[in-house]
Amino acid sequence: MSVFHFEVRDLPPEGEAFREEVRAFLRQAMGDRPSVRRARSWGGFDPDFSKKLGARGWIGLTWPKRYGGQERSFLERYVLLEELLAAGAPAGAHWVAERQSGPLLLRFGTEAQRERFLPSIVRGETYFAIGMSEPDSGSDLASIRTRAVPKDGGYVVNGTKVWTSNAHRCQYAIALFRTAVVPDKKHEGLSQFLVDLKSPGIAIRPIIDLAGSHHFNEVVFQDAFVPEDMRVGGEGDGWKQVTTELAFERSGPERYLSSIALILELIHHVGPDPEPRAAEAVGRLVAQLTTLRQMSLSVAGMLQAGQNPNLEAAVVKDVGTTFEQSVPELVHALMDIEPTIDSGSDLQQTLGYLVQRAPSFSLRGGTREVLRGIIARGLGLR
Amino acid sequence: MSELGSLLADTVTRLFNNLVTKELIESAEKGVWPDKLWRALEEGGLTLPLVPESRGGAGGAWSDAHVVVRAAGKHAAPVPLAETIVAGWLLGEAALEVPLGPLTIAPVEGDEPLRLTRAGGGGWKVSGTASRVPWGGAAAHVVVVAEGDGGPMVALVARGAARVVSDRNLALEPRDTLVFDGAPVVAAAAAGRRIGVDAVILYGALVRAAQMAGALESLLEQSARYATERRQFGRPIGNFQAIQHNLALLAGHTAAAGMAAQHAFDVADHTDPRRAVAAAKVRCGEAAGLGAGIAHQVHGAIGFTYEHSLHFSTRRLWSWRAEFGSESRWAQALGRAAAARGAEHLWADLTAR
Ligand SMILES: Cc1cc2nc3c(=O)[nH]c(=O)nc-3n(C[C@H](O)[C@H](O)[C@H](O)COP(=O)(O)OP(=O)(O)OC[C@H]3O[C@@H](n4cnc5c(N)ncnc54)[C@H](O)[C@@H]3O)c2cc1C
Description:
Chain A is an alpha+beta fold.
């Protein structure tokens, strides 16, 4: 059975030269930022940082030049992403736009939409949120109820999106709405839209997470108008498109590197000559990191080759998020320290941040159970 | 994969599918040497993938050898194929002739290396104890890496030169102690530049990682198939989500083990593979324990019988994870190396080619 196609991928030589360039930039841009801030990684929303990347041409690296892209390879993009993540760079502002909204427009958008949105995404100025989940529709995404009803050259939208990360800081969202109700066929009648989050009839309300931070939101649509030319793809094509979008969302190195800051802090803490138990723990982490990086790189190689690595991406996300979540556990098991917020060592604070963040790793972008369902289908069980 | 790699993969898969039957493995477990299988492997050019063509090998790379070793693990082939591949490579690196017949490699216990000293007439003799030598009593020759004149040497020792204390692992594969007491050596030479005195452990761990990855593939295939065949409560057990998720977990471990092993072989073609081998042995070992557990759970009582074939893979996994250094030993080594380099080098080292 060759259900999974993981192959060792060599990065092209230009990737390695590029890596040095990115590292030099990050050394300068990141300075001696403490690890608790690095731990935020692409959870950090910093428009200035995004604009700096944009000015270097490092957003939309693979996109066509006519939209401001560089037409470089997916493997070079991979190098950029992993360096940003390893350094804990605050790349969250443009992350979603670069990872999924832009690629979605390139695949399914109109020429006018691409010309309008892509260049400013590339400059690091326009940010996108993801409008998929609703109060009654999480894992069962196809059951969404927010309605978009045709009217006067556009659609009138009513309903509620929830968990919309950074909706309060992004200008736009790509949202999935129901444009037709087809009885007993929930996957039909869905369509995707570019939504200007500042439009009348849209209310964005904060949802505070368990650590007291405001990063996601409830977005309520009350007779909000979305012009017809903001629909992405055909009416009713939403399900096919959203699964493509989710594949973009799931395939990257952010699905195994979320705890890298804690790993680095741990190594720092145990010192150059650790006792056997600590050495073994560090060794197991390094073994996992080494392996997951190769798996993740292998997925990037499949993207580069124009293959469809949905199944492999699900495997990497499942194995990767399990690993990310194991890191705080391991630090707890190994060290007699308390996780902290405002006081304590860098290790304690980084642990404090990640302990509270870790539960989300296997929820966002599709839960562990959903991914295992996808993998089981790949095994011929469903 | 290289052309040679695909050729080897096709040949080895066909050959194992035909010859490595349940009956063959069972008879090997009773101590019968599977001569026909071995001769077929030699005739198929599968035993010496790394030996230069000029010396009778296939002239391939570690990444080519990988497919053969992985297949040997997947099919539970009861022959020292992985050992012969490593032994042939060691001999080749030391520019020694490679004899036909099954070879093995001799790991030592603790830090006490084997020693080579001059014998009369320009030859060498070897002293020391190697333990848990795969097919130590059955292999035609054993290849040792020993301390010699001013550094590690590779030496070829014929069957019969050592005192053999027989033992076996959980999978009933021979794991013998060889006591060399000034034993005569067929040939010896300074080890190649890439070979340290612990090369047997290092490359033994490399091949065991790939064998484990292969055995995990077999577990996944057997378990996924069984889940569609076995029915309870009026439907295939694979319809139950708990089973699906356990098999998805097994698939994840299998994929990770395969990647870790493949990566280590690939690195061995370019540079000192120590870190990649350590990572692979650790990752494959972790997958072995968890994977065997899931496979048995899915199979229920039938998988707990000698009659069923599942245990050919699981018993091997339970032993292989400990052979040529356990996960904890390799993890400690890897962790000590990472700690000594310091956090600031970790990422650069991980991404370095
Ligand atoms: C930090 C964070 C950021 C997020 N950002 C966004 C965003 O920007 N935009 C957006 O649209 N969404 C976002 N989400 C929402 C995310 O996509 C959902 O949380 C996810 O899809 C799961 O939906 P749910 O939370 O409603 O859980 P539910 O679907 O209700 O699931 C609850 C539990 O039941 C399990 N479950 C559900 N169905 C099954 C089944 N068939 N079999 C077995 N188990 C099942 C789940 O796996 C889970 O364990 C975010 C979530 C988090 C945590």
